[in-house]
Write a structure and sequence with these properties.
It is a single chain. The protein is of the alpha+beta class. The protein has 3 domains: 76 residues, Winged helix-like DNA-binding domain superfamily/Winged helix DNA-binding domain (Arc Repressor Mutant, subunit A); 136 residues, D-Maltodextrin-Binding Protein, domain 2 (3-Layer(aba) Sandwich), CATH 3.40.190.10; 110 residues, D-Maltodextrin-Binding Protein, domain 2. The chain is built from 11 helices and 14 strands. The strands form 3 sheets. Strands 3, 4, 5, 6, 7, 8, 9, 10, 11 and 14 form a 10-stranded mixed sheet that branches. It has a two-stranded antiparallel ribbon with strand order 1-2. It is elongated. The two termini are 40 Å apart. This is LysR family transcriptional regulator. It comes from Alteromonas gilva.
Length: 333
């Protein structure tokens, strides 16, 4: 008996037929049939009743299903623990973050680690907020840099970093009606945003949920009809071309502001902001490498805030002492 046979067995049970399991696994049907037959011979009993309609479990099959699920769970846990062990031994820390956070932190973080912490190996992955949360939960990353909208009770230990301000972003384009209307503005009331076509992500994304929350709290409905790919850089290109406006933190577009291709207008009444946090998976032990990386992330966040790249208020302080982490105000949920 091997893990492949267990997987084929459980997928066949779930799908109700060998043909459906073959499609799900993208494997030839005879290969699955052969593996299931081998499994039944090893168990010395029939696990399935087969008919032209599909398959159903025998009494023995129902009993075996419980054991198969437990065995697969144990194998997956063993894989994750071994991956964690290998990562710890190599001093590797895997950090997942959103593109907007990566835009302000990635290069500075890489430089800081390379110059001052050569014993650490940093691996960065970027993706949408829901993907970063899934990576942390499945132990594909050690640290997730994410937003308060993605907090999930039960497995996260949280270390607040910054409460960032949100801005209306307009392309500096003389041919754009948006720019002509807004180029002299430094602030804009939230209700005024309802007058403009916005490029916004859907509610699956943390930013989409933040915008929904402010709409709900203020009673102001915004226009979300412009086609948006969900990709930050693509959206900013649309903004630069005058095809719409975006709501973003300075972290996502400060470099374009410095190049004078976009202008940011702070959103007020109410002031629009959100917390950014570092999160670890509380189901896994904290290594010295992870502790050090959390402190480095806090240090780089502070530097980027001080130079104005990441505008907002620092909300957490990590203090490192002999590779042990003391986090005033940290939250474990």
């Amino acid at each position: 008996m091997n893990s492949k046979q267990l997987q084929y067995f459980l997928v066949t049970v779930q799908k109700g037929s060998i043909a459906a399991a073959a499609r799900e696994l993208d494997i030839a049907q005879p290969a699955i049939s052969q593996q299931l037959a081998n499994l039944e011979r090893e168990m010395s009993c029939a696990l399935f009743d087969r008919s032209f309609k599909g398959v159903s479990l025998t009494a023995a099959g129902k009993m075996f299903e419980k054991h198969a699920k437990k065995l697969i769970d144990d194998i997956n846990v063993a894989k994750m623990e071994l991956q964690q062990l290998a990562s710890n031994q190599q001093g590797t820390v895997r950090v997942g973050m959103l593109p907007s956070i990566g835009n302000v932190l990635s290069m500075s973080l890489i430089a800081q680690v390379s110059q001052w912490h050569p014993q650490l190996k940093l691996e960065i992955s970027t993706g949408p907020s829901y993907a970063v949360k899934e990576w942390l939960q499945s132990n594909q990353v050690d640290i997730a840099l994410t937003y308060e909208q993605e907090i999930e009770a039960g497995f996260m230990s949280l270390y607040p970093l910054i409460e960032e301000y949100m801005y209306l972003v307009v392309g500096v384009n003389d041919a754009s009606a948006y720019y002509q209307l807004l180029k002299h503005r430094e602030t804009i009331c939230f209700w005024e945003l309802s007058e403009f076509e916005l490029l916004t992500p859907g509610p699956k994304d943390a930013l989409g949920r933040l915008i929904d929350q402010y709409e709900h709290d203020t009673g102001v409905g915004l226009k979300h009809d412009k086609a948006y790919s969900g990709q930050l850089m693509t959206g900013l290109r649309q903004v630069i071309q005058g095809e719409g406006l975006m709501i973003l933190p300075s972290a996502a577009m400060y470099h374009l502001e410095e190049s004078k291709v976009v202008q940011s207008i702070k959103i007020i009444q109410p002031e629009m902001k959100r917390k950014v946090l570092a999160a670890t998976n509380s189901n896994f032990a904290m290594t010295d490498a992870i502790v050090k990386m959390l402190a480095i992330i806090q240090e780089v966040t502070s530097k980027e805030q001080q130079v104005g790249h990441w505008r907002g208020n620092l909300v957490g302080q990590l203090v490192q002492d002999d590779a042990k982490l003391h986090v005033p105000g940290s939250v474990a949920i």
